[in-house]
Amino acid sequence: MGYAGRGDRVSAPAAPRDGVRWFFNQPPGLAILFLTQMWETFSYFGMRALLVYYMTKQLLIGQQQASMIYGVYTATVYFTPIVGGVIADRWLGRRRAVIIGGAIMAFGHFLMASESLFFFALAAIALGNGLFLPSLPSQIDGLYAKDDPRRGSAYNFYYVGLNLGGLLAPLVCGTLGEVYGWHWGFGAAGIGMLGGLLLYVFGQRWLPQEPPRPARVVETTTDATPRHALKQRVMALVAVALCVMVFRGAYEQTGNTIALWADAGIDRSFFGLAIPMTWFQALNPLLVIALTPVLVAHWVRQARRGREPTPARKMAMGAFGVGAAFAMLAVVDASAHGQANWIWLALFFLVLTTGELFILPIGLGLFARLAPKGHGATTIAGWFFTSFGGNLLAGALGMLWTSFGPSAFFGAMALVAAAAGTLLRLLDGAVGRAEAGNLPAPASRLAAEHAQSD
């Protein structure tokens, strides 16, 4: 939503400098945001890949307590952006928020080198993330005009960058932590964060200009968006957010109970060698990178034929897919009697990742498109707030791991994901009407008629 200008007038998003279009025919600024997010994700998931193992093996924290600490920490990481988004929109601006937040996060990663500062380190990472997380992706929309056909796929490319960092994280930080010591892995995460900051600082000339503060665009926002249309959009986003929270209760088990199952519930031998347990967490981002171009091309073909599913339908299909992945694990564990072949875990990540691509980048793009003018970072923070509630739910559900056992637990997670899919499917009409109200006439009338016919 990056707009330049002063007073009550706003200009179109800044075009790429000198008309340059590189990076898959996208604006150069997307590459800067892509790479910055990649290294931030490397730092976060590099630390997260080691977190449960570090607590249970090094700090000797019990599984149930470690699960709750994990859930509270990852939830807090996604709660602080609510406040951070408001601070960025009203006072700091998005660029300064990214730089300050990234520096605090890097400091927190280096604090992980001391066992006595463990909880202070987690707090620092969560606080810095509050400024960083909503301020970076909220700059994407400002790279494009509203009628730019590349705008919709930008978030899929951005999501690839996020997952490229997630792919490297367990391979680098996880291996260093397992082989050379936990603190080497945590240190590598901090270095990754600093690298991302440097890329962002030196690439700022390609980014959109800062939007005016909300106090200066009240009149424009009121004129451009009628109160009833704004309310409709907000209510649709809140409903979608609640559904995604339920979905994440199951999805976020990948770094928690799934990691424990990878350690004790499967046979990790491969030609006489044991596959490091953290490497399995690299499968999800690797598959995101591999599958994203395939799915985007598929959706483009569907759109040309007028058959592309609506955002809510895509998200519902994604939730059902993740439910199917957990149902498969429930059957596998029950029949394998505690030592399943590692190939089943790889297949789980294939099914789960396919479902994920139907829901998480689609939801991020939906929140960005429906964001009120001047409140882009705050609205994106609202999307990440779904991870706050979802991770809290995931941590609480993870406490059932010991008492349920793997098979029953995975079956329960399948039901949680399926419930989220059902709710999202029921929201299809409401989301369609909200999107129709965000389109310029006469497109909004056509979209409204389509939504009503559904």
Structure description:
The protein is globular, with a radius of gyration of 22 Å. Strand 2 and strand 3 form a beta hairpin. A two-stranded parallel ribbon has the order 1-4. A two-stranded antiparallel ribbon has the order 2-3. The model is unreliable at 1-19, 216-223 and 441-454 (pLDDT under 50). It has a single domain, classed as Up-down Bundle (Growth Hormone, Chain: A). The protein has helices at 28-58, 63-92, 94-111, 118-135, 151-179, 182-202, 218-224, 227-251, 257-264, 283-304, 311-336, 342-357, 360-369, 376-398, 401-404, 406-426, 428-436, 443-453, and strands at 266-267, 269-270, 273-274, 340-341. Helices cover 72% and strands 2% of the residues. The chain contains 18 helices and four strands. By secondary structure, the protein is an all-alpha fold. The relative contact order is 0.15. The chain crosses the membrane at residues 30-55, 67-88, 95-112, 118-136, 157-177, 183-203, 234-251, 271-296, 317-336, 342-368, 380-401, 407-427. It is a multi-pass membrane protein. GO terms for molecular function: peptide transmembrane transporter activity. This is MFS transporter. It holds the Pfam family PTR2.
